[in-house]
């Protein structure tokens, strides 16, 4: 069941409150509506946006992935990926558990840390905007924290289908070559 309640806020003209019941969990989001021209969906910024704490209103699987990255726990991270799930980072596709483990070992080798900046949900994805830091100077020449977006796509039963990691905000228009 989805219930949308328009209401006024001081900084924006209209805000929408969304309540969604999924697999026995109740998620409540409040945010500014965003309409995509190709398909109608509502984008909502979650209330715990600028906190370094992990928001509790995200689906449990997303929370588990975030916690695994924060603690650099490879077994917790890999356990979030079922058969057929794919991780795409830097346009490289990791479709086996062995290649996903190898990718995660890169995070551990660079002593990666993340800090949540923003989160959002739409009909097609859940995304988490993070600032990533670590020892990237030798390998990549990166000396400052850099922004990344974790885009989570799910099957209908809320198992992970795809985790895409890039620097593209979900609000930025993009084109795909055919």
Write a short abstract of this structure.
The protein has helices at residues 60-71, 74-79, 97-109, 137-140, and strands at 2-7, 15-22, 25-31, 44-45, 86-89, 92-94, 113-121, 126-133, 146-154, 160-166. With 178 residues, it is an alpha+beta fold. The chain has a domain at 46-166: Nuclear Transport Factor 2, Chain: A.
Please describe the structure with a list of short key phrases separated by commas or semicolons.
178 residues; alpha+beta; Nuclear Transport Factor 2, Chain: A; seven-stranded mixed sheet; 4 helices; globular; disordered N terminus; SnoaL-like domain-containing protein; NTF2-like_dom_sf
Can you describe what's shown?
This is SnoaL-like domain-containing protein. InterPro entries: NTF2-like_dom_sf (IPR032710). It comes from Zopfia rhizophila CBS 207.26. This protein is α+β, with helices and mostly antiparallel strands and 178 residues long. The protein has a domain at 46-166: Nuclear Transport Factor 2, Chain: A. Helix content is 20%, strand content 35%. The protein is built from four helices and ten strands. The protein has helices spanning 60-71, 74-79, 97-109, 137-140, and strands at 2-7, 15-22, 25-31, 44-45, 86-89, 92-94, 113-121, 126-133, 146-154, 160-166. The strands form two sheets. A seven-stranded mixed beta sheet has the order 4-7-8-9-10-5-6, covered by helices on one side. The protein is globular. Mean pLDDT is 75; it is low at 1-52.
């Amino acid at each position: 069941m989805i219930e949308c309640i328009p209401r006024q806020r001081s900084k924006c003209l209209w805000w929408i409150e969304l309540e969604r019941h999924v697999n026995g969990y109740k998620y409540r989001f409040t945010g500014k509506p965003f309409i995509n021209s190709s398909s109608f969906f509502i984008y909502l910024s979650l209330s715990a946006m600028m906190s370094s704490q992990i928001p509790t209103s995200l689906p449990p699987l997303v929370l588990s992935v975030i916690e695994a990255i924060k603690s650099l726990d490879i077994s917790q991270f890999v356990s979030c990926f079922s058969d057929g799930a794919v991780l795409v980072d830097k346009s490289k596709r990791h479709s086996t558990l062995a290649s996903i483990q190898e990718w995660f070992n890169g995070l551990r080798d660079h002593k990666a840390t993340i800090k949540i900046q923003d989160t959002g949900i739409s009909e097609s994805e859940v995304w988490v905007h993070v600032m990533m830091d670590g020892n990237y100077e030798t390998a990549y020449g990166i000396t400052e924290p850099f922004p990344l977006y974790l885009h989570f796509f799910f099957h209908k039963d809320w198992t992970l289908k795809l985790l895409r990691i890039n620097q593209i905000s979900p609000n930025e228009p993009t084109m795909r070559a055919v």
